Structure prediction request, 242 residues.
Amino acid sequence: MTRFADLHLCAPFRNEEQLKRMTAKSFEMGYRLVGIPLPPNVESDQVKRVRKICSEVGLDLVSRVDLTPKNTNELLASLRRLRRKFEVVAVHCISKPVARQAAKDRRVDLLSFQVTKPWNRFFDRAEAELASESLASLEIDMAPLLSLDGSLRIRLVSSLRREAAIAESFRVPVVISSGATSDYLLRRPLDYSALAMLFDMDSSLASRALSEVPCGIVERNRLKLSPDFVAPGLRVVRRRDP
Prediction:
């Protein structure tokens, strides 16, 4: 059975009522794994509280941090400080130097770009080539396609069509997330797969972007965060004493 994931469920973790409502709706929609953005300074007991709320409705919580660095030095400092604290690290690329550094840094999981400013979307062929040699995936949020209208939506679809084609050409994985800030913007995985046709992504790639790719990112990072992890392909195996 396909396990669908939404790595960008923008539920306000401090608003318990809305958090419960959105996680319950997410499970109802067919998701089993959700990434909820948390502040960099979040306390472990706060993460446990959110994890418990998710678990009560049948969801597996993925701790996620969204970085919006102003420059490459700030990005590198944040990665050194936070990489081992969160299961998923996303970088919102607001400048070309930040985008280039994020694309080539193996500590970055997801690359995201501004929705309403197509001139600030830096996912071009050079960006894709860097990402193809690291572990970064292109994240596409679907909520803006539902909330925007008119010329803003047209420009966004045009940008996504170009970026999805570049990602496929360079074999850069794509992750489709909801980006939903309320339960009204949540849709089923099959609905998002159908919406992906707007930017020329076929159904098989869209399905992978909602399941195999995001689940693979989480599995890889949970292994790295395990105390048994030594290096890629190496881990400590503990045996019981005879």
Remarks:
- The beta strands are 4-6, 31-37, 60-67, 88-93, 110-113, 137-141, 174-177, 229-231, 234-235.
